[in-house]
Write the structure tokens for this entry.
Amino acid sequence: MNPIYIAAATIGTFVYTAGLIGNFFSLLLFTQKELRRVSTGLLFLLLNITNTIHLLSLIFEFIGSLLTFEVFPSDVFRCQFVLWLQNSTLTICSLLATTISIDRFLRSEYPILSRVWCTPKNVLKLSIIYIICSMLLYAFFFHPLNIYGQYGYCTFTFNDTLYTLVMHVMPPIRFAIICLIPVPIMIVCSCRMLFNIGKSRKRVAPQTAACGPPIALTVVPILKLATTNIIHRQKNVLATDRTLLLMVSINVITYIVTQLPFNIYAIYYGYEQSKNNDTNSIVRSYLLMWSSVYFGVGFYLYCSASRQFRKQFVTKIKNLFLHQHFSGTENSTTRNN
């Protein structure tokens, strides 16, 4: 077997396995009640679920691009359902990632109005719209002539209208939806958030300095304690904002770096796999793997960059082990009785 294919298979196995494990750990965090009550936390939860589904759909294409025979011989499953699922979930991921940036921007720019706009209920409504529109947009993949060609790849040449739509019309539209529109929005929202948080720090710093020594000399202990609690609460809010800003910034940078190469490639080659061309097949496999990194690397980047995220993850794991331990102890006691 070609060493390049062996390397691709090894790297791909690592990427997809690590991605699925990371998404599982992220799911443990984002399903917490206190996070689901916040619009940003719910958006990250929905993004994590969609990322996982998309990662699973990419595995089928990855396996098919490496092997000389088709593991999934069904046209309806591989050429229609899998391609539809890939593109639908990718579009939903793009929309959710963009919405996360907009959500944090609104919270930093319009703190009062964001209480009405940025709610879990609105997130669910928006997500349903995203899902329905994405599913309908790529429904053309279920065309009955979207089947395997003579080289064992999914092809669209059996119908001229389908071929024109899939190879020439939809790739630029998908590129606009997935890259051209979301990327500038993410960058602008992140820059504005950074500016707003910088202003918040400047406002809090003078207040903290002003509430220092004079209060200790002139105010009764109870009032001093209340003032200290307010300052501490303000610092906690800023720390949470910084953590969320960091997560959003990491999400934006990772999205841009990983999604642009494969989607630019897809504009030229469309959705069709390379016909009996080893070079294009290898290029597609590696770009597909690089694109897949985004859908499973979030957990590892968040843990590496945010101490608060690591603390929450460790706490969650400890609580799960303690809950399992106590449940096992109670069951054992019940049996003995």
